[in-house]
Amino acid sequence: MEFLWSFHGFCLASALLFWLVPLTLVSLFLDPDLAENAEPIALAVSFLGIAALFQIVDGLQIVGAGALRGLKDTTKPMVIAAVGYWVIGFGSGYYLGFVQGLGGMGIWIGLAIGLTFVAIALLWRFAVLGSGLSYPEKPALAVA
After folding, report:
1. Does the N-terminal or the C-terminal CB of the chain have fewer CB atoms within 10 Å?
2. How far is CA 64 from CA 13, 57, 97, 127, in A?
3. In this predicted structure, what is the pLDDT of residue 33?
4. What pTM was estimated for this model as a whole?
5. Which residues have a Cβ under 8 Å from the Cβ of 83 and sit 6 or more positions away?
């Protein structure tokens, strides 16, 4: 449990860094004093806000996937990930980015939506399997 809090603390610290000092981070890679860098810097700073959300949600998704792997449950999480990333994430990213005209920001938001779905679904599945509630195809736990 201690590792879990340490891991989420790291994800939250990274997200806060992205939210609080995005220009400083981008300035490590692009010179803000050059006029031709103004547009890429503005885009990168705006994308870091979504990347901060990614940090938090991806941390939850990693914990959910790892916990299910510990229960020897790998097939359904793979399907959840495929649907979440390719159908929900890619689909909403395309819709927001191109149909709604949000461009790169819409694509990033769509991918964050897909990642959020995967995180919630994996954690929900672990809660159900770990609680002993009836669930179809509950994986058998190895007896040592």
Report:
1. C
2. 20, 11, 28, 9
3. 96
4. 0.82
5. 117
Block residue for tokens 């792997």: 69
Interval 1-17: pLDDT, tens: 565 667 778 889 999 99
Residue 61 CA to residue 115 CA, distance in Å, equals 8
Answer yes or no: is pLDDT of 59 > 90. yes
Higher per-residue confidence, 2 vs 76: 76
On the CB side of 96, CA atoms within 13 Å amount to 17
| Amino acid present at 125 | R
Residue whose structure tokens are 């191109």: 98
Q: Is the pLDDT of residue 24 over 90?
A: yes
CB-count exposure of residue 2 (10 Å: 0-12, 13-18, 19+)? exposed
